[in-house]
Specification:
Layout (H helix, E strand, L loop, with lengths): L4 H17 L5 E8 L2 E10 L2 E10 H5 L4 H12 L10
């Protein structure tokens, strides 16, 4: 899969916005292209140290993230696994 730098930058921007909506306190993330989609790796501070979570998203999901339903589906899918991460107060 050949992606433009703009597509990669847009995917990072979308993921960044989603993670901000989850109000994580301390985290880093990376977005890598995979067959037909994206792999998102999030490292976050939890009560017992740093943890890593990996998520998958299709190209269409991140592309259509302006759609409230698609955005909420991604937030719901990520919120559970990231529940142990420290939140901003």
């Amino acid at each position: 899969m050949v992606l433009s730098i703009e597509e990669v930058a847009r995917a990072r921007e979308v993921v960044s916005g989603l993670l901000e909506e989850l109000h994580l306190s301390n985290y880093t993330f990376d977005v890598e292209p995979r067959d037909g989609g994206w792999e998102i790796q999030v490292e976050c501070a939890a009560d017992d140290g740093w943890v890593t979570h990996t998520f998958a998203a299709t190209r269409q999901e991140l592309h259509r993230c302006d759609d409230a339903r698609v955005r909420q589906q991604l937030l719901d899918a990520w919120a559970g696994p990231l529940a142990a991460c420290q939140r901003m107060r």
